[in-house]
Amino acid sequence: MNGCKIFTFYVWILLYLALCSRHINAARILGFFPTPSKSHTLIHAAIADTLAHAGHDVTVIGTSKNVYPNAKYKFMEIELSEATNSHKTILQTMVNKPKPFYLNIFNFVHSFANTANRTLNHPKMKDFLRTHGAGAFDLVLLGYAANDFAMGLGAHFGCPIVLSFMVQPLYSTNRLVGNPSENAYAPSLLSGLKAPLAFWGRVLSFLATFFEQCIASPIIEINAFKIYKYNFPPDRYPPLDEVRKNVSLVFTNHHFSQGPIRPNVPNLIEIGGIQVKEKPDPLPTDIAKILDESKEGVIYFSLGSNIQGSHLTEEKIKIMFNVISKLPYKVLWKWAPNELPGESKNIIFREWLPQDDILAHPNIKLFITHGGMGSVVESQYHGVPMVGIPLFGDQPSNMANVVNSGYGLSVDYITMTEESLNSAIQDVLHNPKYKETVQKFSRLYRDRPMTPRQTVVYWVDYVLRHQGAKHMQSPAVHLNRWQLLSVDVIGFLLAIVLISAFVIIKVFKLICCCGKKNKLPKVKKAKQN
User: Fold this and answer.
1) Which tens digit of pLDDT belongs to each residue from 374-388?
2) Range 55-68 average pLDDT
3) What is the mean pLDDT of residues 294-313?
4) Residues of the chain with pLDDT > 90: what percent?
5) How confident is the model at residue 89 (pLDDT cuts 50, 70, 90)?
6) Predicted confidence band of residue 349 (pLDDT cuts 50, 70, 90)
C-alpha cells in the first residue's frame, strides 16, 4: 500500500514538473494574417494552431472570420468588408478575363498590400499596438504576401519574425533569407514552367526570373517602402531594409517530393501539407452517412474557398451542372452563396464542407478542383485523383504539374464544354492509372522524419531558444542584388583587364616608335667608274 502511495506521489511530482517546464518554455506569439484570401489563412492559421497546441500563448489577428473556430489560439478579427469586396471583384475579373500569371501579379499585389495596410490602420489594430509595446510578444508569425511593410511589427515588439508562405518560394521570399535563384532547373512559379527544362524552357525561365527580379520586384518595393514609412515612422523605427534582416525563418507550404529539387538555405523550412490533419475530425452526421453508404464511391467538387457561384458565368455553371447531374455517383458540391445551379438527386449542395476530412474518407473516388495549391496538396496527401478546372493565379501551373505527374486531368475553363469536362471525368474515373499514381505519391509525400506540425514546433522553439537564431542567417541577406550577382566584382575585374590591355598596347606602341627612331638609315655606296 505504501509502495503504491509513493509511486502515485512520484507520478504527481513528475506531472507537476512537466507542466511547469511547459509553462516556462511557453512563448507569447502574435499571428498576423492580413490577407483577403481564406485559402491562404487556412495555411497560416494551421501553423498558429499547431503552436498553441504545443503550449505557446498564441494570439491571431485576421481580416476574416476565424477559419478554425475550435482552435486553441486567441482570435481577434479586423473586419474589412470594403477590401474583401474589392478582392472579390479582382477574382471575378481574373476568372472571366484570364491573363498569364505574371501579368496578374500586380492585381494580386495591390489587393494584398491594400488589405494589409487597411488592417494596420484599423482603429482596433492601432489600439492593440498602443496597449502592446516592446516585449509584449516573443515572436511574430506573419502570413506573407506582398506585405513586407508589416514586418515593422517585429520592430514594434522587439522580437524575431517568422514568415508563413502558402506555396513554393518566389523571389520575394527567397531574398529575405538569401535563398539562391536557380532558374536553369528550378523555374519560378510565375513562369508557369515545369522542370526539367529544355533550351527554350531555360530561355523563358531566365526571362521570367529577370522580370520578377528586375521589373516586378522594384515596382512592388516602391509601394512597400511608402506604406512602411507611413505606418512605422523613421523617427521611431529602423528602416525597412534593416527590419527585413530580422526574419528568422520562412515556412513554405511545399515539399521537395513535389519538385523541382533545388537547394535551400537552413532557415527556409518546407512544411507542405501543414493544413492536413494527422487524424481526420469526425464528419457531420449527414455527410458521414452519405459517404459510408455509397460503396460505389462519391465525387467531391469544390472550386475553393475564394470562388463563389457569382464569379462564374451562367454558361459555365450550366455546363458543370449538366455533366455532374448525369453521373451515376453521389456528388458533394461546395456551392456558395447564391442560387443553386439546379436540382438533381445525385448532387448534395453545401455552402461549407470539411474538405480535408472528406478527402480522407476511403469512399471518395474523385476530386473535381480549381487546382489551388492547398487543395492539390490535400488530394495528393490522401491519394485522390483529380480533374482540375483552373481559374487564375498559380492554379493552371499546379494543374499542369498534376497532369504531367499522372495524378489527373485538367480542363480549360474558358473553352470548357460538356464534352471536354465529361471526357476528363470519365477518363479519370475509369482509368486506374490515375488513382495508382497519386496513391504511390501519397506514400512518398507522407514519408518524412517529422510531420509538418512537428517540424513547425521544433523550428519555432529553436528560434526562441536561440534568440532569433542569427547563426542560421545566410550572408546573402546582407548583400544587395548587384553584389549577389557579382556585378561589382565583374566590373572591377573587367576594368583591370581593359586598363592592362590599354597599358600593354601603349607600351607596345612606344617600343615600336622608339625602334623606328633608333634605326640607322642605309648609306648608298658611290658607283666607281
Assistant:
1) 899 999 999 999 999
2) 91
3) 84
4) 55
5) low
6) very high
Residues 262 and 307 in one domain: no
Range in 117-131, 357-371, 391-405, 409-423 with the lowest mean pLDDT: 391-405
Q: Is residue 341 packed enough to be buried (19+ CB in 10 Å), middle (13-18) or exposed (0-12)?
A: buried
Q: Is the pLDDT of residue 445 over 90?
A: yes
Q: How far is CA 320 from the centre of its chain?
A: 29
Q: Which three cell numbers stand for residue 404?
A: 504531367
Question: Mean of the per-residue pLDDT values for the chain?
Answer: 86
Q: Which residue has the higher pLDDT, 38 or 25?
A: 38
420, 323, 417, 334: which is closest to 369 by C-alpha? 334
Residues 6+ apart with CB under 8 A from 132: 157
Give the H or E element holding residue 30.
strand 28-33
- pLDDT for residue 515 is more than 80: no
Both 398 and 458 in one domain: the answer is no
Per-residue DSSP letter, 70:
T
In angstroms, the Cα distances linking 9 to 18, 19, 213, 509 are: 14, 15, 63, 98
Range of the domain at 306: 285-446
Say yes or no: 166 and 31 in one domain.
yes
Consecutive H or E run containing 281? none
For residues 120 and 142, is the Cβ–Cβ distance under 8 A? no
- Cell numbers 474583401 label which residue? 84
| Same domain for 457 and 416 | no
- Of 89, 51, 100, 95, the closest CA to residue 72 belongs to 51
Task: Please enumerate in sequence order all residues whose Cβ is within 8 A of that of 151, keeping only pairs 6 or more positions apart, or say none.
Answer: 140, 142, 161, 240, 243, 244, 246, 247
Q: Enter the C-alpha cell of residue 245.
A: 534582416
How does DSSP assign 171-240, residue by residue? HHHHHHHTPPP-TTTS--GGGT--SS--HHHHHHHHHHHHHIIIIIHHHHHHHHHHHHHHHS-TTTS--H
Please tell me whether the peptide bond between 233 and the residue prior to it is cis, using omega within 30 degrees of 0. Answer: no
Q: Distance between CA atoms of 527 and 323, rounded to whole angstroms? A: 116
HEC letters along 114-125: HHHHHHHHCHHH
User: Could you tell me if 418 and 504 lie in one domain?
Assistant: no
At 16, the pLDDT band (50, 70, 90 cuts) reads very low
Which residue, among 63, 302, 116, 105, has the nearest Cα to 220 in the 3D structure?
105
